Amino acid sequence: MLSSILNLEALAAYDLTHVQYSIADPWGPTWALITLMPVFMLAVYFGVLLQRRELTYANALVGQFALIITGLTCYSRVYLMYHTLEQVYVGCSIGIAMGAMYYMLTERMPRRAKHDSLLMHFRKFLYTNYFARMLCLRDSWTVYPDGPIEIEYSQWLTNFQAWTKPPACTALQGSANAHLSLMLDALAQADLCIAVPTAFSVGCVIAADAAQMRNPSMDLDVIEALAPYSLFTGYSRELPGNTHAEECALEKLARYAASTPDAQSKLAREKSSKRTPLSLFMYTTMEPCSERLSGNAPCVDRIVRFNEARHVTSAAWLAKGTGLENSSCGALKPSMCDGSLRPITVVLVVQGVREPQDFVQCQGQRVLRGNGVDVISATPRALPATLGLKLPPLTSISMRVSEGINWLEDACLRMAKKGHKT
């Protein structure tokens, strides 16, 4: 019926994937599929681009597609004897040079360009124009040094752990007021740092949860689910030897724990090993370092080694030596603290800001999570006054509190870079 209506002989076949191979060749179908790889690659790239909206993938597509076309062209030119091998080598060398220049202009230089440079202005326009906003185009590698995977995984893990915990547990919520309050205390510690142009100024606070410090024989239901109390503090270069904030706080804690009565007794340590460890929270204004140019042990290694050392002390001894007995500590009093010896372990690190790539590329979050330590970022959801938080009196910087910015992250970053050349 259709053939009677249409003149099939007058029609032309529209076929962009016409691939022929010998039926006798067992590898024929495989090579035929390989010839279609550019088509498959286009489909994959377009799918990823639509799903992720990352312009970096579009840039990679352009570069790789051009590379494949160049390779096919070179092969066909030699096969058809249009060019000699020497001419192809020269052409490939020119192509490599142009590809390297393309990469420098589109990727490396814009990421390292100054804010007032022409490349930076072009990059800002590329991501803020009407069409980019309409299509939600972005480049996560410009904002996150390690790409979007780490930050997205961090946010997912925080939400997932909070979802799997009982409703009363807020330890893994970076927006909890208890976390924000102690992060402000850590910021005040960073304010004590002597500013140097070749290192960051960071503050640290180590705290324990009141619910775990209390004597289990006492009925203290009035204690909130999350009520961390500051135990030891530290700030960059506080102790001799180019020390970091986390290093100083851990050193103070380890020394004090070693002075616990009976802590060195073998029998007491054996008994303590059977008890549930006292969980510690570490608040640091910047992500713990994973590499140090000085060659000293990075902070993530020190945290892991601290946990492996299984330092032993008691909540009552910690309360006695850290000023808890002389402070206003709500429902928890020193007499209510557990006097039994047990190990102490850092289970959670709350960071104010990720470490910039000014000196090294930090992998602190990944290393800590790989060793069983949770890492979250302090993320206030409102202004301090709304949250009932009191800002510390800082002398190094003035806090910029306004809608639309993470005022705590901004303060931690500017504090860390005090004394640096802008």
Automatic annotation (TrEMBL):
<keyword id="KW-0812">Transmembrane</keyword>
<protein>
    <recommendedName>
        <fullName>CMP/dCMP-type deaminase domain-containing protein</fullName>
    </recommendedName>
</protein>
<feature type="transmembrane region" description="Helical">
    <location>
        <begin position="88"/>
        <end position="105"/>
    </location>
</feature>
<feature type="transmembrane region" description="Helical">
    <location>
        <begin position="31"/>
        <end position="50"/>
    </location>
</feature>
<dbReference type="GO" id="GO:0006139">
    <property type="term" value="P:nucleobase-containing compound metabolic process"/>
</dbReference>
<feature type="domain" description="CMP/dCMP-type deaminase">
    <location>
        <begin position="177"/>
        <end position="325"/>
    </location>
</feature>
<feature type="transmembrane region" description="Helical">
    <location>
        <begin position="57"/>
        <end position="82"/>
    </location>
</feature>
<keyword id="KW-1133">Transmembrane helix</keyword>
<dbReference type="Pfam" id="PF18785">
    <property type="entry name" value="Inv-AAD"/>
</dbReference>
<dbReference type="InterPro" id="IPR036938">
    <property type="entry name" value="PAP2/HPO_sf"/>
</dbReference>
<dbReference type="InterPro" id="IPR016193">
    <property type="entry name" value="Cytidine_deaminase-like"/>
</dbReference>
<keyword id="KW-0472">Membrane</keyword>
<dbReference type="InterPro" id="IPR002125">
    <property type="entry name" value="CMP_dCMP_dom"/>
</dbReference>
<dbReference type="GO" id="GO:0003824">
    <property type="term" value="F:catalytic activity"/>
</dbReference>
